[in-house]
Structures are given as structure tokens and as C-alpha cells.
Design brief:
By secondary structure, this protein is of the alpha+beta class. Among the domains are: 87 residues, no CATH class; 144 residues, Immunoglobulin-like (Sandwich). The strands form 3 sheets. Strands 4, 6, 7, 8, 10 and 11 form a 6-stranded mixed sheet that branches. Strands 3-5-9 form a 3-stranded antiparallel sheet, with no helix packed on it. The radius of gyration is 25 Å and the shape is globular. The N terminus is likely disordered. The structure holds 2-acetamido-2-deoxy-beta-D-glucopyranose (4 copies). One 2-acetamido-2-deoxy-beta-D-glucopyranose binds next to strand 5 and strand 9.
Length: 366
């Protein structure tokens, strides 16, 4: 519960960080204020044991600081954040809403401005979960500027448009570098323009190829890029052929053990981070047979001797994968991890130059 609370909190900070705009009101201001009042009333009924459904969970634990629903200032909706009572009062007052007001309904005409716009008390910086770096760019969860739910709206919200996607990267041109394709709408309809007849991935593992429109999602900081090393067998080890063994892997910076239905939700949802800023996902291990340890011909990715998704979370940073009762036959092997987000996409990190996020070792069975 705590992690989802912190994530909600972090996302909400993006909205609260925007400059407040007191004075002229937009059509959605009153509705936003009323929505914030209704949510805060609801939070009064919650205890630490209340069922956890976002965004309520952000306000269950008052211990964070002072947890409250704020009316958004730049678009319709509310956001959950830590703030001072004075700041909360000022922001709600600026919308024209009062505690006696009806629950949120269709946006009403702006009410009369408050006589003296309250000064905005500087908000003490809330305790931001360290490592959560997804604060600041996108919209807070809530409703779009047109009033629809951001998570169900079929319209691209202006707050998430990457305006730099219009730059092909060649101004000035660099020798040998290819111009990027560009987009003014985040490629939302990219798959409509691909090869005729290409199906949407649509959650399936389509062996004949497909086009997947899911955004990449949350990307960790450089300090939170995952890393792993095989503990057993180690690189260069010789193990007993035809004897069961446990593969063990030391892993860091990956919240392991989280995987979704690989048949119905493959690549279907964006990568996500936990409250510590670590990618939420799982790992796999794959063993391929080689002609010899110094084989130089590429392997065939369609063939593998052993494959196992690691469904259980790491215990003390170690993942264990049993390899049957009879182990592997005599031979030379390459064994690699495939670290993935929950929906099975390979982990995605913030910089192009990074150490390998997966480990591969070569071993022999005799
Ligand atoms: C955003 O809101 C939608 C709809 O209420 C909800 O399903 C989703 O979990 C929320 N996302 C986050 C990150 O809180
Ligand atoms: C987007 O482009 C502007 C203008 O070139 C630049 O200042 C800014 O750093 C770019 N943003 C990112 C995230 O690179
Ligand atoms: C990838 O997963 C393997 C286990 O499958 C783990 O040992 C390794 O640490 C992970 N790598 C990263 C970068 O998380
Ligand atoms: C593999 O690990 C499991 C659980 O730790 C253990 O019960 C089992 O005996 C191990 N198998 C081998 C072959 O070491």
C-alpha cells in the first residue's frame, strides 16, 4: 500500500509544482474546487487500514506531511499531494468553491472572485521518495482539459505532447547520423501508417510480426538501472551433466517477481517504477546450446534448451531457478538473463550508454 501511495504522490507533485494562477478563473475552476472538497471529506473517513484504491491511498497516511486533494490550476481535475493547510485553503478558495458546495458536477459559470485573494503560503517541500524521477513532465492523474478522464480519453492531452519530437536531430546535420522521423502528436496513430495488413500487437505474442502502440512509460534514473550477475553456474564453470542444479542470480535495482499474463497482455502496458524508482518487473533465464565455448556463428534465437520466467521475487537479492532433476546434457552452453518490465518488454533505462542490463555466462557440462 505504501508504494502505491508514494507513486500517486509523486505523480501528483507534477501538478502541484506548476505556478499557481490566482485571479481570473477558467470554467473548470469551481468544479475542481468542489471536487477537491469532496475528496478531502472522503479522506476524513479513511484510516491506515482502509482498502487501498488510488488516489485515496495517498491521503490515508497523514504522516507523510499534510496530504490533501488540490484543484488543478491549468486544467480540469484534482491532484493529491502533500501541502500546508494554508496552501490548501488558498487554492480551494481561489476556485470559488466552499465546503457547503454541491459535489462536483458539470462545470458551472465562474463564481464571484474572493474579496481578498489569500496569499499563497509557500509549500514546504514534501518528502519526495528518493529515486522517483518521474516528477515534473506529464499531467497529474485526473481529468483532461476537456473534462474527460485522462486514462480513458481518446484525445491526446496537450500536457503529454513531446514538442521536441518535431526535431529530426539533424540541425545541424552530423556525418553518418540518420534523421529521425518526427511527430507532432506523439505518434499516437503510428500503427495506422505502417505496412498495410500489419496487425496491432493488442496484447498478444504475434509470431508473424505486429505493431505495438503502447507508450514506453516510466524510465528510472541512472542510479536505478538494473543489474544482475549469475552466481551459479559462474562464467567458465564446469558442472555435472545430467544432474539437477539450481541457477542462482544476484540482482539489484529491479523489483522482481511481477509479471502479467504473457498471452493476453504482452507489451500491453507501459513500464512502471516503484516508490524507490526501480523498474517493476521480473526476469527470465535462457540457456542455449553451443557447438563449443568459442563458437563464433550466431545462435538461433528461436532455439533454446531451457527457458524459465522467474515468477518469484528475489530473496535477499538472489533469484533461484531450478533446472529439472536431470540438469543439462554434456555440452557447452550460453546462459543469459532477460530482464523485463511487468508486461514483458525488456527493461528500458534513461541513457544510451550503459553497462549490460543482463548477464550472460558460458559454462560446460561434463
Ligand atoms: C489514474 O486514474 C485511473 C482512473 O481513475 C486509474 O485506473 C489509474 O490507476 C490511475 N493511475 C495512477 C498512476 O494513479
Ligand atoms: C527540447 O528542446 C529544447 C529546445 O531545443 C531544449 O532546450 C530542451 O533541452 C529539449 N528537451 C530535452 C528533454 O532534451
Ligand atoms: C536481470 O535478471 C537477472 C535474473 O534473471 C538478474 O540476475 C539480473 O540482475 C537482472 N539484470 C538487471 C539489470 O536487473
Ligand atoms: C534448489 O533450491 C531449492 C530451494 O532452495 C532446494 O529445495 C533444492 O534442494 C535445490 N536443488 C538443488 C539440486 O540444489
Amino acid at each position: 500500500m505504501l508504494s502505491s501511495a508514494l507513486i500517486t504522490l509523486a505523480l501528483a507533485l507534477a501538478a502541484s509544482a506548476r505556478p499557481a494562477r490566482f485571479g481570473r478563473r477558467a470554467a473548470f475552476d469551481l468544479a475542481n474546487g468542489q471536487a477537491a472538497i469532496a475528496l478531502n471529506a472522503q479522506f476524513q473517513t479513511l484510516t491506515a487500514d482502509s482498502p487501498c484504491t488510488a488516489p485515496q491511498d495517498a491521503c490515508v497516511n497523514q504522516g507523510f506531511a499534510h496530504c490533501a486533494a488540490l484543484p488543478l490550476v491549468n486544467s480540469a481535475g484534482t491532484s493529491i499531494t502533500c501541502t500546508t493547510q494554508a496552501d490548501l485553503d488558498a487554492r480551494i478558495a481561489a476556485t470559488g468553491a466552499t465546503s457547503g458546495a454541491a459535489p462536483p458536477a458539470a462545470p458551472s459559470p465562474p463564481a464571484v472572485p474572493p474579496t481578498a485573494p489569500p496569499a499563497l503560503t509557500p509549500t514546504a517541500p514534501p518528502a519526495t521518495p528518493s529515486g522517483v524521477n518521474n516528477v515534473g513532465g506529464g499531467a497529474a492523474n485526473g481529468t483532461s482539459s476537456t473534462g474527460s478522464d485522462l486514462q480513458t480519453s481518446l484525445t491526446l492531452d496537450p500536457s503529454v505532447i513531446c514538442t521536441n519530437f518535431t526535431d529530426n536531430g539533424q540541425n545541424p546535420p552530423s556525418v553518418g547520423q540518420t534523421a529521425s522521423s518526427t511527430s507532432t502528436n506523439n505518434y499516437i496513430n503510428f500503427c495506422a501508417l505502417t505496412l498495410p495488413g500489419t496487425p496491432l500487437t493488442n496484447g498478444g505474442q504475434i509470431t508473424t510480426g505486429s505493431c505495438n502502440p503502447t507508450p514506453i512509460g516510466l524510465i528510472p534514473s541512472v542510479d536505478n538501472m538494473p543489474s544482475a550477475k549469475f552466481n551459479f553456474p559462474k562464467n567458465g564453470d564446469t558442472i555435472d551433466a545430467n544432474v539437477g542444479f539450481n541457477i542462482t542470480i544476484n540482482v539489484k535495482n529491479l523489483q522482481t517477481g511481477v509479471f502479467t499474463n504473457a498471452v493476453k497482455t504482452y507489451f500491453a502496458a507501459p513500464q512502471t517504477l516503484n516508490a524507490q524508482g526501480l523498474i517493476i518487473g521480473h526476469s527470465h533465464v535462457v540457456i542455449e546450446t553451443l557447438d563449443s565455448l568459442d563458437q563464433i556463428t550466431p545462435t538461433n534465437p528461436k532455439n533454446h534448451l531451457f527457458f524459465k520466467g522467474i515468477d518469484a521475487p528475489a530473496v535477499d537479492g538472489v533469484m533461484t531457478v531450478p533446472v529439472g532433476a536431470i540438469g543439462v546434457p554434456a555440452g557447452a552452453y550460453r546462459m543469459c538473463t532477460i530482464n523485463s518490465s511487468s508486461n514483458h518488454q525488456p527493461v528500458i533505462v534513461p541513457v544510451a550508454q550503459h553497462g549490460s542490463l543482463d548477464d550472460c555466462v558460458y559454462f560446460t557440462a561434463k
